[in-house]
Amino acid sequence: MDSRPILNRSLAEFGETIFAEMSALATATGAINLGQGFPDTDGPASIAQAAVDAILSGQNQYPPGLGIEPLRIAIAEHQRRFYGLDFDPDSEVLVTAGATEAIAAALLGLCEPGDEVITLEPYYDSYAACIAMAGARRRIVTLTPPDYSVDLDAFADAIGPRTRLLLINSPHNPTGHVLSQVEREGIARLANEHDLIVVTDEVYEHLVFDGEHVPLASLPGMRARTVTISSAGKMFSFTGWKIGWVCAPPPLLDAVRTAKQYLTFVNGAPFQPAIAHALSLDDDYFVDYLEGMRSRRDRFCDGLKDVGFDVFVPMGTYFVTADIRGFGTDDGRAFCLSLPERCGVVAVPNEVFYDNVDAGRHLIRFAFCKRPEVLDEAITRLGRMSQ
Ligand code: PMP
Ligand code: GLN
């Protein structure tokens, strides 16, 4: 035990997540928390009531391994309603403990040691950790501001004999980039040509302000090779419930399910019927959610520009990346650590989402899924700092 670190060495580079670190800082300092991405207003009361009803009516024991049937049917109907995709609720839909578990189970179920996984940088932090836990290696394709579009030549160059799967995220956290038709088709062409599995994280599918969300599974040749992941946390503003899902053809779904069984087995019994209800809400809910977030994006991005940040206005998600160099520094981590004391606001440094740390050093991310008055107050505080 002496000669070797306690922590599994494949996890050596992964300390506490930036979200936990920055939310703790916000709590300790009383700062406005625009770091971790969670809304400060819960989703519709009818969804919360459905969970209360489920608890009181005794839906509190282990649900079935795939998830309860009404939720699997609702997930399949949602895919049909918004994208015309057909998934069989009995063999092609799996409920998971948030998208986080879906990502972990997909990587653990599909990768072997030595496999390579290609993903876009900056990347959501759990991707790197889950690739490492699967014993695989990550190959990175860097997205660069201001438009953060995918360099398809770099993507093609990253593919090699050990490439097992492409791990894609659109709308993309933290940049807010939404894949264009050219990018989608380019990625699909490469996946088809090289016969690769694609795991696509689409948790922000209902938060596209510019462009449109087109699931990768809907492109020619992609349905049979794609594992699609989404989550009720972002869609309905109940991030703490941790209900996510996977849609995939049976061989891929079975692989993900095999790993998932030994991670959580099952989760969230009373929340499952509540999310089945949520997915059946009419289109107005989804339109209002998007438009409410769009006005926050515009209000907050304008405010950030006014106080001196260079802002990369996101096409989707509820995150915005800002360049801090106008404040005389390029050290985003130090900037974020000092921000609560300087002005009572918390943001996260984008460098933690990069292998190539220098590419993200001068960038920080704000979450704008907060009440308008909270966003205004944050801008006022940030403005005081710049004087
Ligand atoms: N993927 C992305 C891109 C995310 O931003 C998040 C955070 N919500 C997740 C996955 C994890 O989602 P969940 O909270 O459902 O586990
Ligand atoms: N997805 C959220 C974000 O990017 C946070 C989730 C988490 O705390 N792991 O901020």
Explained architecture:
This protein has 387 residues and is of the alpha/beta class. It has 2 domains: 9-43 and 284-386, Alpha-Beta Complex (Aspartate Aminotransferase, domain 1); 45-279, Type I PLP-dependent aspartate aminotransferase-like (Major domain) (Aspartate Aminotransferase, domain 2, 3-Layer(aba) Sandwich). It is built from 14 helices and 13 strands. It has helices at 18-29, 45-56, 69-83, 98-110, 125-133, 152-158, 181-193, 232-236, 250-261, 271-279, 283-306, 332-343, 357-360, 372-386, and strands at 32-33, 93-97, 116-121, 137-142, 163-169, 197-201, 226-231, 243-247, 310-312, 319-323, 345-346, 348-349, 363-367. The strands form 3 sheets. Strands 2-8-7-6-5-3-4 form a 7-stranded mixed beta sheet, sandwiched between helices. The radius of gyration is 20 Å and the shape is globular. The relative contact order is 0.17. The protein binds 4'-deoxy-4'-aminopyridoxal-5'-phosphate and glutamine. Glutamine is lined by residues 17, 19, 36-37, 173.
What topology emerges from the helices and strands here?
Elements (H helix, E strand, L loop, with lengths): L17 H12 L2 E2 L11 H12 L12 H15 L9 E5 H13 L5 E6 L3 H9 L3 E6 L9 H7 L4 E7 L11 H13 L3 E5 L24 E6 H5 L6 E5 L2 H12 L9 H9 L3 H24 L3 E3 L6 E5 L8 H12 L1 E2 L1 E2 L7 H4 L2 E5 L4 H15 L1
Parallel strand pairs: 1-11, 3-4, 3-5, 5-6, 6-7
Antiparallel strand pairs: 2-8, 7-8, 9-10, 10-13, 12-13
The chain binds 4'-deoxy-4'-aminopyridoxal-5'-phosphate and glutamine.
